[in-house]
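User: Structure please.
Assistant: Input sequence and predicted structure:
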Amino acid sequence: MKKILALLLVSLTLALAALSAHAASMEDLQFDDQARIANRELVLNGLGIRKLFIFKAYVAGLYLIEKVNTGQAALNLAGPKRIQMRMMMEVGPKDIKQALIDGMRKHVTEAQWAAMQDRVAQFSAIIDLAGAARVGDSINLDYVPNQGLLLSVNNVPKGSAIPGQDFYNAMMEIYVGEDPVDTRLRGGLLGQP
């Protein structure tokens, strides 16, 4: 009887640990409640889905050092950040570049855009290196202070860091800025109902 109770206790403990390892899910995709970047613990701020017409492209999670509920607060927050995308459809590098680079262009001034051209070219080359995003891929767009934007696919780094918080914020504006690519996605990432 003691062995059975011990086994049940171990099973219950493992089940609870598995449940607590994930804070949230959307579209049957599980997201960890925390991420560690640059020796800092980040919390999952919110989840949102990006739809293209009737197609579900990806679910994204926003990780920050503390929870916020406005885009401006997310942009102004110091420290590391992560946007994690879990792909639900295949997207080629040309389409990824067009979405990210055109989106960034939309959120900066002419002078800011001119100052970013070398970094835009570097980002474009890294996206080409990463190749197509496939169904099930996990893509991290991380900001690491004093390094910049780091791109990884399925936890494998792609290319080198692209310096500048201004560059990362221009990319982040696509998701949580005043004129986002998708207002429902923005609301989800900011934890808004």
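Residues 4-20 have pLDDT under 50 and may be disordered.
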